[in-house]
Write a structure and sequence with these properties.
This protein is an alpha/beta fold. The chain has 14 helices and 20 strands. β2 and β3 (14-16) form a beta hairpin. It is globular. Bound molecules: nicotinamide-adenine-dinucleotide. The site of nicotinamide-adenine-dinucleotide has 29 residues, from α6 and α7.
Length: 480
C-alpha cells in the first residue's frame, strides 16, 4: 500500500475509498504528494441517488428558508477554521502561493456568507389579473445540480456555484478536477461539520471523460454548471442536449486591456502584475492581451520588461511573485505555444521558455510584441504567464482589436479621462469590464461570458437566479 496521504470522495454523508487511486504531484518538485480515490460510475450513480433522495425529502427546499441561512453561515465558519490546513494542501497540490491559497479559502467562505444573506430573500411576485384571480410566482430550486470544476481555483470556483445552489434549496453533486482535487475535500468537511443533511452535497473525483460525462448525461441531473475549457464545454452542451438539461457555461477567455494615451502607467503596471502573473497566468479572466496607444507603446514595453524580469519565481510555499504551472502537460503546452509564436514571427521581449535547472513546472514570465492579429498567440487562450502587447492608433481600432476574438469574458480600460474610459468600456464585448484596475470587483459582482466564453452568470445577486426556475400559480377565486 502507498505511503502517500489519502483523500476520499464524499457521497451521501460518508467518505468513501476506491479500488483505484489517482496520484497528485507537487508542481514545484514533480514529486508525488498525495493520492485520491478515483470515483467510478457506481459512485456517480450513488451520489446522484443520494442527491435525489435529499431533494425528494424536502429537507432543503421545504424548510423555512432561515434554516438554510444558518447552514450556510455555519459552513462559512467551518471553512474559516479549516483555512490554514486546507491552504497548505492547495499550495502543495496546485503550485499556487500559500498566500493565494489562503485567499482562495477566505473567498470560498465569503461566498457562503454572501449567499446566506440571500437564502431567505428569494421572493416571487404577485401579478394583477383582476378581481377574479390571485396570481403569484415562486422561485423553485432546480433539483439536483451537477457542478463540474476546473483545476485553477478549485475551492473558490466550487464555492461560487455550491453556495448559491444550496441557498436556493438544491442538492449538489460536484466533480472535482483530476489535477488538484485535494483541497476541495475541505469544503465537504465544512459542510459535514455544519450539519448539512445527508446527500445535500456530494463530491466525486474521477476522470472527466468517464465520471464527468456520466453525470452530465444522468437522468437525475436537473442542471449542469460547468467551469472549464471551451472544447469540454462544447462536448457537455452536446451531451446535455439529449435531455435538454439547463446549463451554465463558464469557459475560457483571451481578454484584452486597452491603454489610452493618458493612462496612469504606475496603475497599469500593478494591474499587469496581477492580470497576467497572478496564479502564473492560469486564470480564465487573465489579461492576456494589452493594447497600447502607440504614443506610449515603447515606454510600456520597457516598464513591463522590467516588471517581468524582476519577478521572484519559486515554490508556492515561499510566496514568490510567480509560481509553477499546475502540471508538466500544462508547462509543455504553454512552452509550445510560445515556440509557435516565435516561429510565426513574433518578437519575444523576455521569457518564452521554461525555467531551466529545476524539475518543477516553472515557466518564465513572457512578453510578446510584433504579433499578427490573426495568429494563434493573439487569438487563443495560453493559460500561462504570457502577455501579448500590441499598439493601436485610434479608439475604434483598439475596440476592434479587443473584440476581435471569438471569446468575450472580461476586458479592461486604462485612462485618466473617465468619460473616454466609460465610452470605451461600453463598446467592449464581455461580461465584465475593469476600468483602471484589472480584477476590480468581488463575490458581489456578476461574472460570466459572451461568445465562446460561455453564458449564464456566477457571483452577485444575479447568480442566484441561475439556480432556480420560476413557477407561476394562478388561482381563480370567483365562480363563473
Ligand atoms: P477542462 O475543460 O479540461 O476540465 C474542466 C473539468 O471538466 C474537469 O473537472 C474535467 O475532469 C471535466 N471534464 C472533462 N471532460 C469532461 C466531459 N466529457 N464531461 C464532463 N466533464 C468533463 O478545463 P481545465 O483544464 O480543468 O481548466 C482550464 C480551463 O477552464 C481554461 O480554459 C479556463 O479558461 C477555464 N476556466 C473558466 C473559468 C470561468 O469562470 N469562466 C474559470 C476557471 C477556468
Amino acid at each position: 500500500m502507498s505511503t502517500l496521504d489519502r483523500y476520499y470522495n464524499y457521497i451521501d454523508g460518508a467518505w468513501t475509498g476506491a479500488e483505484t487511486w489517482l496520484m497528485v504531484a507537487d508542481p514545484a518538485t514533480d514529486e508525488p504528494y498525495a493520492e485520491i480515490a478515483e470515483a467510478g460510475l457506481a459512485d456517480a450513480d450513488a451520489a446522484m441517488a443520494a442527491a435525489r433522495r435529499c431533494v425528494a425529502s424536502g429537507v432543503l427546499s421545504a424548510v423555512r428558508p432561515a434554516r438554510r441561512v444558518t447552514w450556510l453561515l455555519a459552513i462559512a465558519e467551518e471553512l474559516k477554521a479549516l483555512t490554514e490546513e486546507a491552504a497548505l494542501v492547495l499550495c502543495r497540490e496546485n503550485g499556487k502561493s500559500l498566500e493565494v491559497a489562503r485567499g482562495e479559502f477566505e473567498e470560498a467562505a465569503r461566498y457562503f456568507e454572501y449567499y446566506a444573506g440571500m437564502a431567505d430573500k428569494i421572493e416571487g411576485t404577485s401579478i394583477p389579473l383582476g378581481d377574479d384571480y390571485v396570481d403569484f410566482t415562486s422561485h423553485e430550486p432546480m433539483g439536483v445540480s451537477v457542478q463540474i470544476v476546473p483545476w485553477n481555483f478549485p475551492p473558490s470556483i466550487c464555492a461560487r456555484s455550491l453556495a448559491p445552489a444550496l441557498a436556493a434549496g438544491n442538492a449538489v453533486v460536484i466533480k472535482s478536477p483530476e489535477i488538484s482535487p485535494l483541497a476541495m475535500t475541505f469544503l465537504m468537511t465544512a459542510c459535514e461539520r455544519a450539519g448539512l443533511p445527508k446527500g445535500a452535497v456530494n463530491l466525486l473525483c474521477g476522470k472527466g471523460s468517464v465520471v464527468g460525462a456520466h453525470l452530465v448525461k444522468h437522468r437525475e441531473a436537473n442542471q449542469i454548471v460547468f467551469t472549464g475549457s471551451v472544447p469540454t464545454g462544447q462536448r457537455i452542451l452536446r451531451d446535455a442536449a439529449e435531455r435538454a438539461t439547463p446549463s451554465v457555461m463558464e469557459l475560457g477567455g483571451k481578454s484584452a486591456a486597452i491603454v489610452h494615451a493618458d493612462a496612469d502607467i504606475e496603475q497599469l503596471v500593478d494591474s499587469v502584475k496581477a492580470g497576467i502573473f497572478f496564479n502564473a497566468g492560469q486564470v480564465c479572466s487573465a489579461m492576456s492581451r494589452l493594447l497600447v496607444h502607440r504614443s506610449r507603446f515603447d515606454e510600456v514595453v520597457e516598464r513591463l520588461r522590467a516588471l517581468a524580469e524582476g519577478l521572484s519565481i519559486g515554490p508556492g510555499i515561499a510566496n514568490p511573485d510567480l509560481t509553477p504551472l499546475v502540471s508538466r502537460a500544462q508547462l509543455e503546452q504553454v512552452e509550445a505555444m510560445c515556440r509557435r509564436a516565435i516561429e510565426a514571427g513574433a518578437t519575444c521581449v523576455t521569457g518564452g521558455e521554461r525555467v531551466s535547472g529545476t524539475r518543477g513546472y516553472f515557466m518564465q514570465p513572457t512578453l510578446f510584441t510584433d504579433v499578427a492579429v490573426d495568429s494563434e498567440i493573439f487569438q487563443e487562450e495560453v493559460f500561462g504567464p504570457v502577455l501579448v502587447i500590441h499598439p493601436f492608433d485610434t479608439e475604434d481600432e483598439a475596440v476592434e482589436l479587443a473584440n476581435g476574438t471569438p471569446f468575450g469574458l472580461v476586458a479592461g480600460v486604462f485612462d485618466t479621462y473617465l468619460d473616454r474610459a466609460l465610452r470605451t468600456a461600453r463598446r467592449l464585448r464581455g461580461g465584465q469590464v475593469f476600468i483602471n484596475e484589472w480584477f476590480a470587483g468581488g463575490v458581489e459582482t456578476p461574472f460570466g461570458g459572451v461568445g465562446l466564453s460561455g453564458f449564464g452568470r456566477e457571483k452577485g445577486q444575479e447568480a442566484l437566479y441561475s439556480y432556480v426556475q420560476t413557477r407561476n400559480i394562478a388561482v381563480r377565486i370567483k365562480g363563473a
